[in-house]
Specification:
globular, transmembrane transporter activity, mainly alpha, two-stranded antiparallel ribbon, 21 helices, disordered N terminus, Lysosomal dipeptide transporter MFSD1
Length: about 450
Amino acid sequence: MAVLDADEAAALLDEGAPAEEHGRPARKPLSACCDPEHLAHRLLVLALMCFLGFGSCFCYDNPAALQTQVQRDMKINTANFMQLYAWYSWPNVVLCFFGGFMIDRVFGIRLGTIIFSSFVCVGQVIFAVGAICNTFWLMEFGRFVFGIGGESLAVAQNTYAVSWFKGKELNLVFGLQLSMARIGSTVNMNIMGWVYSRVQDLLGSAGYTTLGIALLIGGVTCIFSLVSALILGYLDKRAEKILCKEQKKTGEVIKLTDVKDFSLSLWLIFIICVCYYVAIFPFIGLGKVFFIEKFKFSSQEASAINSIVYVISAPMSPVFGLLVDKVGRNITWVLCAVVTTLVSHNMLAFTYWNPWVAMSLLGVSYSLLACALWPMVAFVVPEHQLGTAYGFMQSIQNLGLGVISIAAGMILDSRGYLILEIFFSACVCLSLIAVVMLYFVNLLRGKHLHFLLPLVDMSV
């Protein structure tokens, strides 16, 4: 928060402003809901921050929630279906490096958030129109546009969090934002099939028109997030004037030349990240039909169990975040998460046990890994390289997701679900090998990844 100099303070006092307090001219008292420093107002801002990503996360998994309908109505195989996820990932192979730069130097946080929210809305509309017109390449283009906004919007969301919340509050705020994102994904999984059925009843038949209208209805959530971005931008600008504060930066200083200086520990973290997440998101993208075909679930039951990973992640992410903060030993937590995920995939592949058990374990391990893995980057790179490291980590994660999404669709078309599950298990095994290697590298280099992460005031 900026502090006025003596001349400015004197000028305000001359105009009848209240006396100074704590080095800043006191301002006219405001009601709780209107005062940017009051808890009630900050809670309103927090709610808007959480809603920023709701629409994006809701619509990201629209294809998974409607896999049967998309493949049937658009007359495509699984490999083409998974292109809808690949096209979301492709722009983010590059934009992970430049999203923060555009917010800091080009648009500013407020305009940048509105622009990225608009990309999400426009992308979802193009996606839906592609279905209505029975044009699959237009649907792919819509997902590409959607992807341009989706990941960059998450950067903007985190920047707002840093601007409004400080110190220990920040961990809780990030956890709440992640929880709302997972709630969006969960609602999508469980409601889009119902929306499609209601549209089908209204039109009298299934088909690509029904699919497109259902996707347009789902896009209303993106408009809701855009409205949240507009209101949040107004409140942030108002607070900037009242509190005389400067806009916060993302803190992401990207220098691609830093890549050559990355340590072995950091490269192992990258491998863990890519090999783990490619066994989660593509599986969820294909999971609904898997549960229908192997376990003979109804469409509604399959949607419910496919969303259990997100259901568990919503409340558990903040809890695990606090746990890891208190206990430390990040490598141990990551090892537990990877092993549990491997057990889950093997249960789904080789047994007919109730899949609720395996999916619940997957949800717990997914939440735990996210809380333990990503902070480890801060242990192994200097602060001035953090932006580059995180940008590169997100970039190769999206590259891996794009490639594996296509590969998973091809494997399913040609080999079936058993071989696909073995493939996902192999990816998790690679992640496990990287965790073990990281453990021994860590022992040789001083056990830094077993220490508690120091509390850093990210608002500075």
